[in-house]
Amino acid sequence: MEQENDVQAKRDLMYGELDLGSLTIFSGSFINYGYWGELAPDREITLAERTASQAELYRQTVSRLPTPPGVELLELGSGIGVGAALVAREFAAYVTGLDRSKAQLDRAAAVNADDLEALSGRLAFREGSVTAIPFPDASFDGVYSVEALQHVDDLAAVAREAHRVLRPGGAFAAATFFAPGAAAHPLDDLIETVASGVDVIRPVADFAADLEAAGFTRVTVEAIGEHVWRQFDRWIAQTEYRDSWGRNWLRCYENGWIDYHLVSARR
């Protein structure tokens, strides 16, 4: 338990005082690796393209949910909240962002002040844990998460809680990185955040099984690494982190030790 608490303290520091979203490998207040389209190989990636890739990862994730106008959605690990605001605007949805970090929620309130006013109650933020979601049963039509679940130690609890707060017929979708298989991999030696326990890399099939055990059906796993890793590595190479451990993500992907996945399911 002491070790788990120490790891969680590192995560809290990363998203709190250290303000991960301020790093140049991210942009536009998003914090994800992005879903990238084709880019010409002989030029630098622009800041606008980097920001667009992160916004597109939100669109790709939420598009796995039924989203009629007025749909009520919950984002798990909403961070600075720009993704939740995008979803509320573009999908005509009511979106609540849930995050455990008070510092991130304070940033979300400031960064999204205009949207909070303009969307007239369709965007809100709430402090709480994704393994003990602070809402009653059957509160939402959809639950989604974008690059947050790699920081959660108990994904089975996430699956159970997501199922609980969804209405019958609701849906779940999550995007993040997993191991594509169950074989051993050397990620601890190559990825600093894996070695520290900040990022937990599980076989994606284990999370699919967690969702099924929680009562979900139509569980679908989509590998989307071809839209993530190479362009993200090109972006890192343009920043001051060009010689960092972050360049090893692509190496791990190319060796089949990790991939980026979209996982979706129905209640």
UniProtKB/TrEMBL annotation:
GO terms for molecular function: S-adenosylmethionine-dependent methyltransferase activity. It comes from the Bacteria. SUPFAM superfamilies: S-adenosyl-L-methionine-dependent methyltransferases (SSF53335). The keyword Transcription does not apply. Keywords: Methyltransferase, Transferase. Residues 74-173 form the Methyltransferase type domain. InterPro entries: Erg6_SMT_methyltransf, Methyltransf_11, SAM-dependent_MTases_sf. It holds the Pfam family Methyltransf_11. GO terms for biological process: methylation. Gene3D superfamilies: Vaccinia Virus protein VP39. This is Class I SAM-dependent methyltransferase. It comes from Glycomyces terrestris.
